[in-house]
Design a protein that fits this description.
This protein is 18% helix and 32% strand. It has 2 domains: 4-128 and 299-311, Ribosomal Protein S5, domain 2 (2-Layer Sandwich); 132-289, 2-Layer Sandwich (lpxc deacetylase, domain 1). Helix 1 (81-89) crosses helix 2 (112-121). It is globular, with a radius of gyration of 18 Å. With 313 residues, it is α+β, with helices and mostly antiparallel strands. The two termini are 22 Å apart. Strands 11, 12, 13, 14, 15, 18 and 19 form a 7-stranded mixed sheet that branches.
C-alpha cells in the first residue's frame, strides 16, 4: 500500500485479481475480476457476457430496490454498493470491473472480501492528481420520515441512525458515527454484513429479489434472535451496514467526498436522490485538490476469506 504522501494522486490496482460467488438477488454464480485502469477512468463495469460497459455514476442509477443498480443502453449491473464502498474506503480511483453476469457476487454480504481483493492486488499510485468534491452548503432530502443530508466538513465523516421497530432490532444500538480522520474503513466498517427478517424473505423473492440469500451472505433474523451461528460481528452491525451502503452510494459522485453525511432511516433511493441534488446544486459544492488525508490501513482482525480469491488472468 502507498504511504501517506501519495494520497494526493489517483490510484489504481497493482495487478488483477478475481473472485467467484453468488448474486444475492439473482442467485446466479458470477465471476468478478478487478483490473488496473488508466488515470481518470473512474470505476467502469464491463459485462463480458454481453460485451457492454456501464460507468459507475449517480445519473446511471436505474433501480434502488434492496440494492443499487446502474444501467446504460439497456445493460444493467446490480448490487454494486459493497464494492463501491470498498473502493471508496481503500482510495481506489480507477478500476475496470469485469463481470460474467449482471449482478456482483455477494461473497459474505459485506465489503470485507472486496477489501481483501484490493489488498491482494495492491494499490498503485498514478501521476494524475486526485480531485475531491467539497460540500460548501448543506443539502438534504426527505421522504416518509427518512432523511439524508450532506454538510460542510473539514474531512469526511458519516453517521447513520437505523430505524426499525422489531424486538430483535431493538436489542441493539441503532446509531453509528465515524470521523474518517480517526476511523478506518477496513477496520471499522467493511465487515458489516447485509441483514434481513426471515418473515420478509418470501415477499422479496416474489419480486425476484433475495433468490441467492443465505446465512452465508447475510445476517438472518427471526422473532427470537439472530440465526447465524456466530451471531453479530459487533453490537451495532445493522447500523454499520446501512452506513457502509451509504458510503458505497456516495462514491457514485465519481470522486472522493469532503463533507459530513447524515442518514436517518435512509436507503439507496434517498442516498441517490441526495447526491443527484448535490450535483445539480452548483453553489453547494466545489472541486478541490487533495487535502491532508490518511492512507487506508490494512484490514485488521479478519479471520480469512471464505470465497475464492486468486490473481486475475
Amino acid at each position: 500500500m502507498e504511504g501517506l504522501a501519495e494520497m494526493s494522486n489517483q490510484a489504481t490496482l497493482g495487478r488483477s485479481v478475481h473472485a467467484i460467488g453468488i448474486g444475492v438477488h439473482s442467485g446466479q454464480k458470477v465471476r468478478i475480476a478487478l483490473r488496473p485502469a488508466e488515470e481518470n477512468t473512474g470505476v467502469v463495469f464491463v459485462r463480458v457476457d454481453c460485451d457492454a460497459v456501464v460507468h459507475a455514476r449517480a445519473a446511471l442509477v436505474s433501480d434502488t430496490t434492496l440494492a443499487t443498480t446502474v444501467a446504460d443502453n439497456g445493460v444493467k449491473v446490480v448490487t454494486i454498493e459493497h464494492l463501491m464502498a470498498a473502493l471508496s474506503g481503500m482510495a481506489i480511483d480507477n478500476v475496470r470491473v469485469e463481470l460474467t453476469g449482471e449482478e456482483l457476487p455477494a461473497l459474505d454480504g459485506s465489503s470485507a472480501p472486496f477489501v481483501e481483493l484490493i489488498l491482494a492486488a495492491g494499490r498503485k499510485r498514478q501521476a494524475a492528481p486526485r480531485t475531491y468534491l467539497k460540500v460548501t452548503k448543506s443539502v438534504s432530502v426527505e421522504k416518509d420520515g427518512a432523511r439524508a443530508s450532506l454538510h460542510p466538513f473539514a474531512g469526511f465523516a458519516a453517521e447513520y441512525t437505523f430505524v426499525a421497530d422489531h424486538p430483535v432490532y431493538n436489542r441493539f444500538p441503532k446509531h453509528v458515527a465515524l470521523d474518517f480522520s480517526e476511523a478506518e474503513f477496513a477496520r471499522d466498517l467493511s465487515f458489516a454484513r447485509s441483514f434481513g427478517l426471515v418473515e420478509e424473505l418470501s415477499a422479496a423473492q416474489k419480486l425476484g429479489r433475495c433468490l441467492g440469500s443465505s446465512l452465508e451472505n447475510a445476517v438472518g433474523i427471526d422473532a427470537q434472535g439472530i440465526l447465524n451461528a456466530d451471531g453479530l460481528r459487533c453490537e451495532d452491525e445493522f447500523a454499520r451496514h446501512k452506513l457502509l451502503d451509504a458510503i458505497g452510494d456516495l462514491y457514485l459522485l465519481g470522486c472522493p467526498l469532503l463533507g459530513r453525511f447524515v442518514g436517518f432511516k435512509s436507503g439507496h433511493a434517498l442516498n441517490n436522490q441526495l447526491i443527484r441534488l448535490l450535483l445539480d446544486s452548483n453553489d453547494a459544492y466545489e472541486l478541490v485538490p487533495a487535502p491532508e488525508v490518511c492512507a487506508p490501513a490494512d484490514l485488521a482482525g479478519n479471520s480469512g476469506p471464505r470465497f475464492q480469491i486468486a490473481p486475475g488472468d
